[in-house]
Amino acid sequence: MRVLVPFSIRLEPVSKKNPHEFVEDITEFSVVEMVEKIITPTSETEIIRDQDMILQEEGNRIGEEEDHSGRDDFASRRFTEIHIQQTAMAPKLYENVYSTATLRVIATLHEKCIEFEFVPMSFGPELKKEPYLSLNPFGQVPADVDGDLKLFESRVLTKHIAFEHHGKGTELLYHDLKKMAPVSVWMEVEAHQYDLVASKLVFEQGVKPFIMKMKPDSMVVEENQKKLGQILDMYEARLSKLKYLGGDEFTLADLHHMPTLQYLQGTSTKEVFEARPHVSAWVKDILARPAWIKALELQKQAETEYS
Ligand SMILES: N[C@@H](CCC(=O)N[C@@H](CS)C(=O)NCC(=O)O)C(=O)O
């Protein structure tokens, strides 16, 4: 997929009195060169000039009676507007819509209103061999190719997208260090405390019965539900004072939880969340976000395609 970025510049004649001076400078080569100076194309960027739109006459025609050696059209323009479309390859996300790590990134893209090209990957051997391993040496989804950058680890991708598209869609991170500090703390809590336990429960209660057609290990479930309860006590204390984990606004600290939260709402672990009123309200609030609903639609779409 290519993203077209409309771009236009206006070239004024070097001398208004003598438009021919300007005309002499405008060769096809110098126009492109000039534009390249302004937009600095990368290896993934090219400049397309739409021939029909390139030289649009504006202003008065002058000097029509003069002989311009076959370049009358050029010479008779006081100034010229050039329309350029800068094309850049859309970033690619190698994904699997059933993967919690992938859903984390897709939710971020929707929150930021960013277009990515999705490259669906199966959980089969294609993940464990080249060319995929050069994108993610651990042979897991997601991975992202954005220009010259190749990235993996879902939480790195979400941060990269949120920083790169600062000012677009939901502001998921703060640029103010003081405001950002608690967001960073709770992003770390998610990754190093909550997710260790939540992922085990997703595996036992989601992956095992529905994908592997195996029975969950009830001892592992019980042990991890207990650990989750202890972690959520700290969430309850935090969320009784603030609407979101990072402060008064929704940020990546909340978003990173969404995929595992979603899977666990369909299991007996739901009760562990529901036993804590502020946690329960927070879960309902963030899972109802339009960006998340849109991310889940991709899953439904995939289900229809596979069935
Ligand atoms: N820490 C990684 C975890 C990635 C991960 O575990 N991906 C899983 C799906 S959620 C995967 O690709 N599993 C297939 C496999 O390991 O073969 C991240 O956040 O990106």
Mind explaining what this structure looks like?
By secondary structure, this protein is α+β, with helices and mostly antiparallel strands. It has three domains: 2-88; 90-171, Glutaredoxin, CATH 3.40.30; 173-307, Up-down Bundle (Glutathione S-transferase Yfyf (Class Pi), Chain A, domain 2). It has helices at 19-25, 28-39, 51-54, 72-75, 100-112, 154-164, 177-211, 218-239, 252-255, 258-264, 270-274, 277-287, 290-306; strands at residues 2-11, 45-49, 56-58, 79-89, 92-95, 117-120, 143-146, 149-152. Strands 1, 2, 3 and 4 form a four-stranded antiparallel beta sheet that branches. A four-stranded mixed beta sheet has the order 6-5-7-8, with helices on one face. Strand 7 and strand 8 form a beta hairpin. The longest helix is centred in the middle third of the chain and has 35 residues, at 177-211. The radius of gyration is 27 Å and the shape is globular. The structure holds glutathione (GSH).
Please report the first level of CATH classification, the CATH class of the largest domain: Mainly Alpha
The CATH architecture of the largest domain comes to Up-down Bundle
Q: Average the pLDDT over all residues and give the rounded result.
A: 81
* Termini separation: 27 Å
Radius of gyration: 27 Å
How many strands, which pairing sense, and closed or not: the largest β-sheet?
A: 4 strands, antiparallel
With helices defined by DSSP (H or I, 4 residues minimum), what is the helix count? Answer: 13
* Total domain modules: 3
Measured by DSSP, the beta-strand proportion falls in 5-15%
CATH topology title of the largest domain: Glutathione S-transferase Yfyf (Class Pi), Chain A, domain 2
Order of helices and strands: EHHEHEHEEHEEEHHHHHHHH
Helical content band: 40-55%
By secondary-structure content and strand pairing, the structural class works out as alpha+beta
Q: Shape, please?
A: globular
